[in-house]
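One-letter codes give the sequence; backbone shape is given numerically. An example follows:

. . .
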Amino acid sequence: MSLKIILSGVIICLLYTFQSASAQSNLLEQDLSKIKVDQLSDAQIKQFINAAEERNLSDQQIETTAVIRGLPRAEVSKLMSRLRSVRLSSGSQAQNNRNGTSGNSLNLQDSANVDSSNNKSAGSAMLTKEERKVFGMELFNNQNITFEPSINIATPKNYQLGTGDELMVNIWGASRQNYILEVSREGTVTIDNLGPIYVNGLTVEEASDRIINRLTDIYSGLRSFGERGPNTFAEVSLGRVRSIKVTIVGEVRKPGTYTLPSLASAFNALYLSGGPSFIGSFRDIEIVRNNKVVAILDIYDYLVKGENASTIPLQDQDIIRVVPYDTRIELQGEVKRSGYYEMKGEESLGEAIRFSGGFTDKAYTHRLKVIRKTDRAKRIEDIDGDEISSFTPQNGDLVKVDSILDRFENRVEIVGAVFRTGTYELKEGMTLKELIQKAEGLREDAFTSRALIYRKGEDLTSKVISVSLRDVLTDRAPDIGLQREDLVRVFSIFDLEEEFNVNINGEVQAPGEFSFMRNMTLEDLIAMAGGLKESASQARVEVARRVTAEEILDQENPNVSENVQMANIFQFYVDKDLSLSPENASFELMPFDQVFVRKSPEYEVQQGVVVKGEVMYPGQYVITNKNERISSLIERAGGLTSFAYLEGARLIRLNPEYYKELNQRKEEVIDSLQRVQISSEMNSSSVNSNASNNARGTRGKGIVNLQTLDPELLKTLAAAKVRVSETNAIGIELQRILESPKSKYDLILLPGDTLEVPKELQTVQMNGQLLYPSSTRYDRSKGFKHYISEAGGFTKRADKKRAYVIYANGSVDKTGSFLFFKDYPEVKPGAEIIVPQKQGGLSTQAWVGIGSTLASIALTIVTVINVANRN
């Protein structure tokens, strides 16, 4: 009994599941007015998607169908959002086919003779350089452009119904009913209780009249009765459209048979096939139906005129044939779109220029060049501007549009001391005086005695014409006629003067060179330099003035060089308010004067020293007087701590040679940077020798601006080349200094000194020609040889006589000798033993050579003596 109950339950569940699946698969044919999308599960949405795919519906068609089935607009938006979400999560291939991610947004499927794995627009194909030059080729080979037929447009009036089309009948008024009617293979639609209605080949409007006429048999309210009008109304519209098969042959990139919506045009089909190939025609594309050419598609009408290419409808089994082009020419040069253009019939060269977008603003339209291929060679034809619209190009013609010349037909130029410099129009008979008037006249600083006109001859050689502006402007000399490309230069009186300047150095805020101005006083120059520094000596302001040639000739014995005075020196007292004494108030500066503001001898900037280590208060201290010594510094630092090691104290002093060489190296670095900059400028500039550039030349030097250099970077670059140490360690005897202050051991402190007082050191370090250089513990009872043995002893190349010790305070003691005995230096805590290498020792081969030489000399001497004895 229980088994029967279980089997019954299983059967009921299976029946419920089957009914639910059947209902969901037929969801698109139900009344959707009461559907709530939020209440649908993902499984139900997937069934909805599968039902739409079975009927080959796109997203737009799903949306349209849902609206017709009564789904509210708000719910339609939710439905489409859920569809996209479920497709993304499930990785549905249908989403790719409908959203164009595969490169084909037409939502079409190729027929069996087209590889389904290659179901993409040729937009992903790579065009060659020559193919990209064909006008219109990139239209069909651009992944960013799609040509999807719209199915949400009003049904075209000439659209003929066929098998697979779907009609939607909506009845309202006294009666309400909706029908979805699909045209059968026999060309009929069937309504319950009415029988089949033949609509194949009819337009939607004709089919609507026929269907509504038959519906009156069921819905009498559709008829009018006397004066009483109908109380029921009906409307017939086109729902889902059928699919048709179109074959594309000829010179296309992907020929074959394609399945596409019946609303698609020939242009849509061409895009799916990748468009015409390199030799295919863009202007003579045939639509063949029932073995007859019913239409010709010219893609240029769409590209150039903007005419809608979808006006040519397609029908099932149509053939699109792309024939090879007949006439193609190439446009090069100054046209807006250069490339290959297909010509049709008797179209002129002007039409080709229009196809290319017209001439650019630099085009030379007075004459075009056409390079034409003949049976044996090439030839050139010149086409005048008025012949462009009548010249008929031939296949293979190359049309070159040159650019206009980079020159002016009527230009003159004026530069210099006029109010408005620049270029002006050269009118017939124009003169120099008229050009100056156009330039708003001469400036006040104009040099009127002479102006220059740079003129080019017929052979482009340059010459200069000198003119007295004063005479021309006062009519004392004839005016001068101007020619094309004349350049007039009017000098300023300042251009003809030497560049005067004055110099100020010393204790001012901004020393340097300043331009000289008439009536400039000493006070003016000091103010321009930022005023006096606090360190300036008001009583020692000195002015050095050069001696002119006339003053030298007035001197006694001017031909004797040692008697010639080279400069005049003036000294002044300057108050803090920058005023001179009354007797010097009238003193004015002259060109090239040099002013020196001396430093006050009483002024000293605080100078610091540093004490480190075992003192009570280590740190930085300011030198109180020029005679301050080490003992005073120790006292100011609170004295020594109990851990201080006096014998290891040392004084670190800045090395003046280091800073001297550092400054020299800075100059070398700056000089190197200047050379690099000048070399770069010379390599990047071009020399122009025409007269106008000579006239506009300016003076200047390729120099490095020191203000743009990082001081720390400059110091680092310079310090890398310095070969001496920045500091020196001075050995001091701190014990004696503290016992005898101000003695010879108590050194005077200098700015930058550092006094280091270490703790007592417990080690001794051994370096140099030792078998095992190392450090070891200091033992007061041990001597020099003990520490040498701690390092393994001397090497064979050790120079024992020159061994020395560097003590912790920086002092050095070397090895001495008495007769055959060596006196090694004392070793103290923190000392470093250095054993140098022998210098210039002779090798065994050298000693053998010397022995051989001495033996030869001895043999020679013996021989000479024997010969002498015999005589």
User: Anything to note?
Assistant: The first helix runs from residue 2 to 25. Confidence is low (pLDDT under 50) at residues 10-26, 92-125, 686-704. The chain has 21 helices and 38 strands. The longest strand covers residues 446-456.
